[in-house]
Each structure stands twice: as structure tokens, then as C-alpha cells.
TrEMBL record:
<keyword id="KW-0723">Serine/threonine-protein kinase</keyword>
<dbReference type="GO" id="GO:0005829">
    <property type="term" value="C:cytosol"/>
</dbReference>
<keyword id="KW-0418">Kinase</keyword>
<feature type="binding site">
    <location>
        <position position="65"/>
    </location>
    <ligand>
        <name>ATP</name>
    </ligand>
</feature>
<comment type="similarity">
    <text>Belongs to the protein kinase superfamily.</text>
</comment>
<dbReference type="InterPro" id="IPR000719">
    <property type="entry name" value="Prot_kinase_dom"/>
</dbReference>
<feature type="compositionally biased region" description="Low complexity">
    <location>
        <begin position="1"/>
        <end position="12"/>
    </location>
</feature>
<dbReference type="Pfam" id="PF00069">
    <property type="entry name" value="Pkinase"/>
</dbReference>
<keyword id="KW-0067">ATP-binding</keyword>
<dbReference type="GO" id="GO:0004674">
    <property type="term" value="F:protein serine/threonine kinase activity"/>
</dbReference>
<keyword id="KW-0547">Nucleotide-binding</keyword>
<dbReference type="InterPro" id="IPR017441">
    <property type="entry name" value="Protein_kinase_ATP_BS"/>
</dbReference>
<feature type="domain" description="Protein kinase">
    <location>
        <begin position="36"/>
        <end position="301"/>
    </location>
</feature>
<dbReference type="InterPro" id="IPR011009">
    <property type="entry name" value="Kinase-like_dom_sf"/>
</dbReference>
<keyword id="KW-0808">Transferase</keyword>
<protein>
    <recommendedName>
        <fullName>non-specific serine/threonine protein kinase</fullName>
        <ecNumber>2.7.11.1</ecNumber>
    </recommendedName>
</protein>
<feature type="region of interest" description="Disordered">
    <location>
        <begin position="1"/>
        <end position="26"/>
    </location>
</feature>
Length: 380
């Protein structure tokens, strides 16, 4: 794309050019004409700033990302390629659990990406402490379906985390932010392109990303998914970094110990039926880790009742954002289970305590895990 002082879009009616005055007063002319005036900032990061924008013609609200300015050391060609690659990738993805990328507009030397707006942050819902077990499972299944779709399209996200998941007013989870994503396989290719370098946010990054020159980005995504479920269940990270050796994280070292005791302790904190697949998703050795097709074939995952665009599940609520009183489906229908085999009818953040021994594990393990602030800056 050639730089121009005119305004334009990569598709649709926005591709028409508009003359910009000598003093730059017409910045956002085309953007405002098509979408209206930009509103408040709802997020920012290394890749740019995201604001709200409400289209005047129909009062529909979108999220608009203003990409960061070009760095002094960055060529114009490289800068524009990064932006257009992110847009082109996002605009080809169409799935209920993936945020829709709708348009891109250039105004002078600024680029704006228009996206579907989902109001609620999954991170905030988790940290509210109000989510129940079936609700957690529903959200997790939505993320699983979205990632499985990405992998079917030959795309690895490479920065999966709670912060990159949002929810609409029905509680349906949507994955956002494809700034770190890569196409690892084109439709006509059989070979997988390996990923190089560290990408993602510290506690979610798979251990092989730190230790190998190149890695399979699909398996790194699977690991991150496993960490997301652990975080949703416990409301905390199990470790700061999945590293061993000289700069090891003690909590991860205990997990990765060859005896398997540390891994067993963590899995004891998870709902019983989730443990088999979660243990395979969080295999330290990527050669032993499952892929997304295996996750989808797991009996627990297949049995999760998940809300869709067409219908909400009647049996669980969805807490929307940090306010525990903001709930979709606030009065779910009661369930009638058969007599449980559990020794004690107790649920701790969605974790069924099966015996007095499990209570001890829960107490000891939770105390031994490193408590980390949930918002961790991505690695760039």
C-alpha cells in the first residue's frame, strides 16, 4: 500500500479518496463520515489503542483500533505490511467465537481497524469471583471452539489469555487481538511452518517457547488454553513463568518434576471430569501434548453445555464483567442430578472436593502456588 495524504479504506465504499487540507484539519474526515466520532478508550497496548465508535446512521457501536505510529527504525514498507497482514488475517476469519474484523481506513499516516464490539471482558468476569462451574466450562468451550477453528484455517493465535477474550451481552466468548498470530499452513501446503521467538504473555507461554529455537505454534496454543482454564477455575495463575533451570519458577519446577506429584496436585484442584484432557493439554513435553482435535474429542469437552448465538443454555448464568450483579440469565433452571459419588457435597470455585485427602491437597497446593497479578504485559 502506497502512503498517501488522502483517506481511504482497503475495501468497500471507503476506498474513495478525499483531499486533505494543508494543515491536516481533515484527519479522520473519511472515518467520521462513515462511522462517526471516536469515543472513549477501552484498551491499549504495544500494537495500538482501541476506542469505541458509534455510527450515526444506525447508532451501532464498534470497536476501533488505531494502530501505533511507525517506529523511527521501521521502514514504511515493513510497517504497512504488519498492519495490512493483521487486517487481512482478521477479515478472513468468520466464527461465532472470533471477533469480526470489518474494515480498515487510512487517514494520512494513521490506520484504523473497525471491529465488532463485545462489551464485557472475560478477565473481569473471572476476577469478580462470581462465576460458577457450568459457566466456566461454557466459556472454556467457546474459546476451545474458536481456537479449533483458527487451527482449521492454518492460523495460530500465539497470545491466548483471558485478556484476549471478550463476551457479548449473551455471555458468548469471542477471541480478539491477532497481532501476534501467524499462518503456519496454507491450504495447498502439507508441511507445518514452525514458530520462532517468544510470543505471548508470561504465565500463559508454553515451556518449549523459552527453550527451543523453534516450536509448533499449535501446541503452544493448546498449552495456553489449559492455563486459561486453570485461571478461570482458581482465579490465579499456577506460576509466573513455565521455566526450569537457572532462572526457574519454583512453582513450575514443582509441576514439571519427573515424579509427577506436582502435576497431580494441580489437577486435583480441577473438576474431576476435566482432569484427563487438562493433564494432556498441560504436558511439559510438547511431543506428548494433545492437539485441538483431541481436545474436541474428549468426553468432558463434548458434554459441555455451551451457549450459542441461537440459544442460551437454560441451566447456568453468565456474569458479565466485574459487577457480580450484571448477569445474563440470572435465574437458571435448577438441575436434578443423580446421587453424587463424592464424599462431601462441597464445591470450591467449581472444584468438587472428593475426600478429606483432597481438602488437604487443596489447602496445601493453593498456598504453595505463586500468587500473580492477572494482568501481565505481553512479551514483545
Amino acid at each position: 500500500m502506497k502512503k498517501s495524504s488522502s483517506s481511504g479504506s482497503l475495501h468497500g465504499e471507503s476506498s474513495k479518496h478525499h483531499h486533505q487540507g494543508p494543515h491536516g484539519n481533515a484527519i479522520e474526515t473519511n472515518l467520521r463520515k462513515k462511522y462517526g466520532k471516536m469515543g472513549k478508550v477501552i484498551g491499549s497496548g504495544a500494537g495500538g489503542t482501541v476506542r469505541l465508535i458509534t455510527r450515526e446512521s444506525d447508532h451501532k457501536t464498534f470497536a476501533i483500533k488505531q494502530f501505533r505510529k511507525r517506529k523511527p527504525s521501521e521502514s514504511e514498507r515493513t510497517y504497512v505490511k504488519k498492519i495490512t497482514s493483521e487486517y487481512c488475517l482478521g477479515s478472513t476469519l468468520h466464527h461465532p467465537n472470533i471477533i469480526e474484523t470489518l474494515d480498515i481506513i487510512q487517514e494520512g499516516d494513521s490506520f484504523y481497524e473497525i471491529m465488532e464490539f463485545a462489551k464485557y471482558e472475560l478477565f473481569s468476569s473471572v476476577m469478580s469471583g462470581a462465576m460458577v462451574r457450568d459457566e466456566i466450562a461454557c466459556c472454556f468451550r467457546g474459546i476451545v471452539d474458536g481456537v479449533a477453528y483458527l487451527h482449521e484455517m492454518g492460523v495460530a493465535h500465539r497470545d491466548l489469555k483471558l485478556d484476549n477474550c471478550v463476551m457479548n451481552e449473551r455471555g458468548i466468548v469471542k477471541i480478539i487481538d491477532f497481532g501476534c498470530s501467524m499462518v503456519y499452513q496454507l491450504p495447498f501446503e502439507k508441511q507445518i511452518q514452525m514458530a520462532k521467538g517468544v510470543s505471548g504473555s508470561d504465565p500463559y507461554i508454553a515451556p518449549e517457547v523459552f527453550t527451543t529455537e523453534e516450536h509448533d505454534p499449535r501446541l503452544a496454543d493448546v498449552w495456553s488454553l489449559g492455563i486459561i482454564f486453570v485461571c478461570m477455575t482458581l482465579c490465579r495463575f499456577p506460576w509466573k513463568l513455565a521455566k526450569t533451570g537457572c532462572d526457574a519458577d519454583p512453582s513450575f519446577e514443582a509441576y514439571a518434576n519427573s515424579s509427577g506429584a506436582g502435576k497431580a496436585r494441580l489437577l486435583k484442584l480441577m473438576p474431576r471430569e476435566s482432569r484427563p484432557i487438562l493433564g494432556r493439554m498441560l504436558e511439559v513435553d510438547p511431543a506428548k501434548r494433545v492437539q485441538m482435535k483431541d481436545v474436541l474429542e474428549d468426553e468432558w469437552v463434548k458434554g459441555i453445555e455451551v451457549c450459542t448465538l441461537q440459544a442460551m443454555c437454560l441451566y447456568h448464568p453468565h456474569h458479565l464483567g466485574e459487577d457480580p450483579n450484571c448477569v445474563s440469565n440470572p435465574n437458571p433452571k435448577p438441575r436434578f442430578h443423580q446421587q453424587s459419588a463424592y464424599v462431601k457435597d462441597e464445591v470450591v470455585r467449581g472444584v468438587e472436593v472428593e475426600s478429606s485427602e483432597d481438602e488437604e491437597v487443596l489447602s496445601v497446593t493453593t498456598a504453595s502456588f505463586t500468587s500473580v497479578q492477572m494482568a501481565v504485559a505481553p512479551v514483545h
